[in-house]
Design goal:
With 146 residues, the protein is mostly beta strands. It has strands at 5-9, 12-17, 20-26, 30-34, 43-49, 54-56, 64-71, 77-84, 89-96, 101-105, 114-115, 120-121, 127-133, 137-145.
């Protein structure tokens, strides 16, 4: 089968100062369908991410694909990115403010590390990593098979 998932995206920003409109933007609502080849997900589910950070495992999935990240906290921001445990370095990619939710498609090469010209890889030893910004934070990570 094909086109099992439907994704809808839109963005509206309106910033006003008194009677002055500083920014008025509205994207055209866009939707598309995507193919989901597997049957696993959502995984790993609800997690408590400590301020010091924690690796998030997608071990139940052969190839992670669509993923929804939700910050379930009312007060703490969560940061996400890739961590290289070999050199103990975290590369932040994004943050989710309290109560926010985002959809992304994880790369089929998630956790791989390309060297030089990008033609060779090492074994996938990197980690999808999340950190509570100023305290522990409850998040929901719902990933599905590619």
């Amino acid at each position: 089968m094909a086109n099992e998932a439907t994704i809808r995206v839109s963005l509206q920003i309106r910033k006003v100062s008194g009677s002055l409109v500083l920014l008025d933007y509205q994207s055209r609502p866009t939707s598309f369908q995507a193919t989901v080849t597997g049957t696993k997900g959502p995984t790993p589910g609800a997690l408590t991410i400590p301020a010091g950070g924690e690796a998030v495992s997608f071990g139940e999935l052969s190839t992670p694909g669509l993923c929804i990240l939700k910050n379930l906290s009312a007060t703490v921001t969560v940061e996400y990115g890739i961590r290289d445990p070999g050199i103990d370095v975290f590369y932040p990619l994004g943050e989710i403010l309290p109560g926010e939710i985002y959809l992304l498609r994880l790369s089929r090469n998630l956790l791989e590390e390309y060297q030089g010209t990008g033609t060779g890889t090492t074994s996938p030893g990197n980690q999808f990593f999340m950190k509570g910004m100023g305290g522990d934070v409850n998040v929901s990570v719902e990933a599905f098979e590619q």
